[in-house]
Each structure stands twice: as C-alpha cells, then as structure tokens.
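Researcher: Here's the sequence for the chain we discussed earlier.
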Amino acid sequence: MLITDNFAPLVLVVDDSEINLKLMQAYLVKGGYRVALASGGIAAIEIARTQLPQLILLDVRMPGMDGYAVCEELKASDLTKDIPIIFITAESHAEAEKKAFAAGGADFIPRPVNREVALARVKAHVDAYAQRRSLEGMFRDVLEFAPDAFVLTDVRGMIVQINACAERLFGYTRHELREISLEVLVPQSLQDGYSSAECRRKDGSVFPADVSFAPLQTNRGILNMAVIRDVSVRKQAELDLKASRQQLRELAAKSEATREAERKHIAREVHDELGQILTALRIDLSLLKIQLANENPAMERKLQDMKDLVDQGIHAVRNVAVSLRPAALDMGLVPAIEWLCDHHAKHSGAKFDFCPCEENIDMDEVRSVIIFRIVQESLTNIARYAKATRVVVSVERGDGVLSVMVKDNGQGFDTTTMGQTKTFGLLGMRERAIALGGTLEVHSAVGDGTRVCVNIPLDSVALQGAS
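Model: Thanks. This is the structure I predict for it:
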C-alpha cells in the first residue's frame, strides 16, 4: 500500500542509476515516507534547497559531481546544513566510510542494500532529525516570546538576530537592526557577565536595564547573547521606596524633636513649678515645727513625718526632671555624656572610662540631644544585658564627622540574630543616626563584648523639618 500522506517525512534519494532510484523509492514508500528523486548532484542540491527533506540518501559515485562534493555543498549552506545525509555506495572499505563522515555524512550504507537495515537507519535518522527540529523550534519559541530582550551578535559585536521583546523595547524592526552594532542599543562598554546599563531606544530616549552576556554555540559558530531586562519600573519603585523611607525618617525626626521639646518643657514645669511648691511647703513645715516644738510632742512627730514625705516628693521631682531632660545637656554634649557615665557608674558598679577629644563640642541642640539619647540607650542596654565590668565611651572629631563609641567587655551577642528578634532599641538608635545623615554600626560576638560606633556629620543640616 503506497503512502501519500503529505505529512509523512520526505526523503530525497540521489543516484545516477534509475534502477537504484526505483528500488529505494519502493522501499521508502512502503515504509511510510514521501520520496523525492534526483539523478545528479546539481538537481539534488536544488531539490534539497526548495523542498527541505528530512533525510538525504546519497550515492557516492555519480558523473560530474560525486556524492562527497554534493554533501560538502549542502553542508556549506545554512538552509540545508542540518539535514542528515546517508551515503550509499558499493565501496565498503574503511577509507570510503572515513571520507563520507569527513564530508559531513551522518551514516554509511554499503551495497547491496538490505531493506530492513536501510529502513531502520532511515527511521533512526528521520526521528532524530525531527526531535532535534522540535527542540530547536521550542527553543526558538522560548526566545521569541520571552519577557526579556534577547540580542544575538557576532564576534564583531554586530547584531544578527533579536526577539519580539527587543523590537518592542528598543523600537526598531528586525530588519533595521541587522548588521548594526550592539553599541547602538547599549552605548556603555560592558564586560562579560552581568551589569547595569543605560540603554538607548530608537527615539533617543534611555532607560535603565540589567544586561547579561554569555557566549552561545550555534550552527553559525559562536555568537554572543545579550539578555536585556528593562528595570525602569523597579528603579522607580526603589526611588519611591527610598523617598518614602526618607519621609518617614524626617517625620520620625520631627516627632523626636517635638518629644524632646515637650520633655524639656515638662521637665522645667515639674522642676520649677512643682519643685517650688514642695520647697515652699517644706519651709512652712519647718517653721511650723519650730513654733510647736515645745507645746505638742505628738504634733512635732507628725510634722516631721510630713516633712520627710515632702523631702521624698522633692527627690522624686528631681528624678523625673532629670529623666525627662538632664540639666547637663544645657552645658553641652560632652558634659552631658560625662554626667551620663557618672550616673551609670554609681548604679551599675562597672568601671567607666570617658575619653572626649575636647572639653566641649559646638553643636546644635537637636543633634546634641539625639546623640545623647543614643549613648543613653547604649548604656541602658549594657546595664540590662551585658554584665560588663568595664565600659569605655569615647568622643572624637575628624574630617567633618563626630564619632562616638561605646564599648564594653560584657557577654556580647550574636549580631546575625538582630533582624530575627525585636531589637527595637538598636533599631531606634540606628534610625536616630540616619535621621542626622549618619551611620550606626554594632560589632559584637558572644563572650567578646559589644562595640557601638556612631558617626554623625558635623556640617549636615540637622533633621530637616524638625525645627
């Protein structure tokens, strides 16, 4: 039964013997293949280029152009070089096989041809070719419809192929980009690998992109593949996020400054108003005690108890006022930090060494207060968690930057867990430093103490929007 299915694989048989052509045609048609016949090399090349068969059965000995020459001609063309070729010849010696494979042949069948063997080899090569073409087609589809731009260039950097995304992204047609240098699209000189670049469209506009390069082995030799991803949306999102974070920091800085102003106001109100009232009350109780000292001993004891309570109230008022706003801050940053060290030394039992670079540092109140609060939080953390016996606090000025370091010899901690635990104290310290345009670094290790380093620029505008 002859198979005439137009979708059956097409096999081209090339032989100068009509008998051999008819015999191979009969074998192949019964095997389910479509067959094209050529009695010479020139005709075979023309049929191969126009009909693109899935396999070529090629006789070696032919007048004019032999099979080796035909094979070399077909392999030299991009259109036909991937078509598998099986040589058929009566020459069965090893030299003939070697010459056939050197010319680009895929297989070798000696004469006389065994039908079953020939059909088995034909089927193997046709199936392999179909599978290869299918994979190549899938690969081409993946590249063509990929969400990123793919640009293939030769060793000179000239563009040989692009995909649909590259057309849309750059505004060029494929024809316009053929034999144009990649530098037209990516003006920057980039190294192999992965880089960020400013790419240029046809209309002259530019956009940020991530560009990766890799060599690609193809049937045209080695090509360079550039994968270009437009990151405009991502970059804009990063800018928006950065601006949003800056706005939040400015808002937090303004809130911090407002809180400090309120603390200062409340501290003064508590100290001046409530303190004066309690002091006046204490004086009155003292006078009253003197007047009634000899008349009523019981009343005298009661007045002493009341006086003691007033003294406790005055002490509590002083503590509240100091907690809200240490009076040492009014004398400057260095005296305030020194007072803070003395205060913690009295209550913690640890030895404190304070090393200022100078007796006072001229700095605006807003930054002085925030640096003071950072040091205060650091010393509070040491008192709570470090179990340290020695603490060193240093203040240095250099290159327009004020550097403050708080170091202890305590038990330390694993800094890699900082992001996994609710370390709001450290987070607040870092945000305070960033709000001043500075940085805060924490260095620690279990059993090796902790070092907190704050660097604040002295010439920056402190806390935009805070005043």
